[in-house]
Design goal:
The protein is an alpha/beta fold. The N and C termini lie far apart (67 Å).
């Protein structure tokens, strides 16, 4: 969108006011990054009042152009831009970083104009990839803009996003790097060597424009050029000066993250006020691009059918259920990191190729793009080996901060995968996901429960994690069995049960085998399938423990810390019930699944031994 150059004086005033408000707000707060805001002022003014199409009265409008502030520490300049747009009252900036204010130190989706939480550098551009993909999904002409800092260009996730955006041919994505040459502790990696940045982005296949980031005409021309570039994304490399507009801080090290105080504040504001002039009004903001039509209604969900006794790996049932879900809900999308034929997400690709996104072996951008997609109304299912999701732990953490509606799925969990060895065995994933506030953690044992929990995850408003397994396991549930989030299933029980064994996933079958072995000796046990680890069915667990002499054993294909044992203990310990935990306690090795389950303490034989020892020990003392 070309802008009338007669509006330049008004835009210069906008840029100056962005600096003034950023300086004032951070000084009132006593913390923040005013110099990082000052370097980006012309970029923000040009974007919001010279290029972007959006409705300020409806920041969440699905056809608005989108903006992601990847350099989240410059949040005050973002808030100031929305003040200029009339969305935030100017007086609200005085509440920056206060505990009762949504104007936090780094942006979060508590604000209606923030799609994803940023501040952990290197994440914003990954989310922007997903937001740009969403425009394609819904057939919208909205464009996505993302502002990076030069320091975060050292993050590997930035380059994962760089290659993914080119692979997806995202010509509706425009990134701008604020190259102000200074990081927190020293000069950035390439300082003001714009040619070094240009070579790298061109090598990744981006259209690149190099400009003076304080020249409004150059910024606007670059944005127009990006909008007219077809077939690939654009990177605008903007040479800027940190602290621009404040003479005694311009381009100087040592000012990062330091608000101006006292005489410095007075001098800074005096200098900036002196830069105002000309017209007081802002250029008009054009509304969002129009879009014709809406998708037709989808058919009702029809999950795959399984018979009792069928042997189906839960990872395979996941893929079949995901494909069925995609047929019933056009919001559902799937993302893969080159393991689709192992997670069986390729079933989704076969039926819905236009909603399947392959990032290659790049888990950070896979999850980051999923967060971006979810922020714009999609229901994304990113799936890979559960062990490799740990590479994206920081993205998952940030998604939790924003309570993003993303549905993570991890396969090949635990020692039960067998011969591939410990590098492929997820034994930390449950702990990682349980640590995310509000994240639902699900671990089905058979095909029926997997199908039902895929549907439950999609219907849940918030982040979920579904753990699937490699071995084929028998179907133990009838097709019409319900699996509500927060529930559990009691698979074996009697009035004379001597202990309760709580299992999930593959260990459910070890517990059932142990139940049969013990029954031959006259010992009865209760077996619970804790398919929902978070939230967990505390009432059922406490009731079962009380009915079995407070003898409660957990068995899990996971390390002892943070998994099923800890989840059960959290639920029952307030009632004075101790939990006896069988878990993987050493770094495993290659071997056959049955050998590994036994060697690392979670086989049916080990369960029998644990139950026998507990029963022989007599009544369980209460704990506090």
């Amino acid at each position: 969108m070309s802008i009338d150059r007669s509006t330049f004086p008004a835009l210069r005033n906008v840029a100056t006011r962005l600096r003034i408000e950023s300086v004032r707000a951070t000084s009132r707060a006593g913390s923040g990054h005013p110099t990082s805001c000052c370097s980006a002022a012309e970029i923000m003014a040009a974007l919001f009042f010279g290029q972007m199409r959006f409705d300020p009265r409806d920041p969440g409008h699905e056809d608005n152009d989108r903006f992601v502030l990847s350099k989240g520490h410059a949040a005050p300049v973002l808030y100031a831009a929305w003040v200029e747009a009339g969305v935030i009252g100017r007086g609200e900036l005085a509440t920056l970083r206060e505990i009762g204010s949504d104007l936090e130190g780094h942006p979060t989706p508590r604000l209606p104009f923030v799609d994803v939480a940023t501040g952990s550098l290197g994440q914003g551009i990954c989310a922007a990839v997903g937001i740009a993909l969403n425009a394609r999904r819904i057939g919208s002409a909205y464009r996505t803009y993302v502002l990076l800092g030069d320091g975060e260009s050292a993050e590997g996730s930035v380059w994962e996003a760089a290659q993914a955006a080119v692979a997806f041919r995202l010509d509706n994505l425009c990134a701008i790097t604020d190259v102000n040459a200074l990081g927190q502790s020293r000069a950035t990696q390439w300082a003001h060597d714009l040619a070094a940045y240009e070579r790298r982005w061109r090598a990744f296949g981006w259209h690149v424009v190099v400009i003076d980031g304080h020249d409004l005409g150059a910024v606007l021309d670059a944005l127009d050029e990006a909008a007219g570039t077809a077939g690939r994304p654009t990177m605008i490399l903007a040479r800027t000066v940190k602290g621009k507009g404040v003479s005694f801080a311009e381009g100087l090290d040592g000012w990062h993250g330091k608000p101006f105080k006292g005489a410095d504040l007075d001098r800074a504001l005096q200098e900036l006020d002196g830069q105002l002039g000309g017209p007081a009004g802002n250029p008009p903001i054009p509304g969002p691009p129009a879009r014709a039509g809406r998708p037709a209604a989808a058919p009702a969900l029809r999950l795959p059918a399984y018979e009792l006794g069928d042997r189906v790996a839960t990872r395979e049932a996941y893929g079949a259920a995901l494909a069925a879900l995609g047929a019933s809900d056009p919001r559902v999308v799937a993302l893969d990191a080159d393991v689709k034929n192992s997670t069986f997400s390729d079933r989704f690709e076969q039926q819905h190729p236009d909603r399947f996104y392959q990032t290659g072996i790049a888990e950070q951008v896979m999850v980051g793009a999923a967060l971006g997609l979810a922020s714009r109304g999609a229901i994304p299912f990113p799936s890979t080996f559960a062990a490799f999701l740990t590479r994206a732990a920081d993205f998952i953490r940030m998604g939790g901060i924003g309570n993003v509606n993303v549905k993570l799925a991890g396969s090949h969990a635990g020692v039960s995968i067998g011969e591939d060895g410990p590098s492929q065995m997820a034994l930390e994933d449950l702990a990682m996901m349980r640590a995310v506030p509000g994240c639902v953690v699900l671990y089905p044992c058979d095909a029926v429960s997997t199908s039902a929990l895929v549907a439950a995850a999609a219907a849940h408003d918030g982040m979920t994690y579904l753990r699937t397994s490699r071995p084929k396991t028998p179907v133990v549930y009838a097709a019409d069995e319900g699996f509500p989030i927060g529930g559990s299933k009691t698979l074996r029980q009697s009035a004379s049960d001597a202990a309760t064994v709580v299992a999930a996933g593959v260990t459910v079958f070890e517990a059932l085998a142990a139940c049969e072995t013990l029954a031959e000796t006259g010992v009865r046990i209760r077996v619970i399938d804790a398919y929902s680890l978070q939230p967990i069915d505390a009432d059922a667990l406490v009731s079962a423990a009380r009915a079995t002499g407070d003898r409660l054993i957990t068995v899990e294909d996971h390390y002892a810390a943070g998994g099923l044992g800890d989840a059960v203990s959290d639920a029952v310990s307030p009632h004075g019930i101790a939990v006896h935990r069988l878990a993987v306690r050493d770094v495993p090795r290659s071997g056959k699944p049955a050998e590994l389950l036994d060697r690392f303490g979670i086989s049916s034989r080990r369960i029998v031994a644990a139950v026998t020892a507990l029963v022989d020990a007599g009544p369980q003392p209460a704990t506090t």
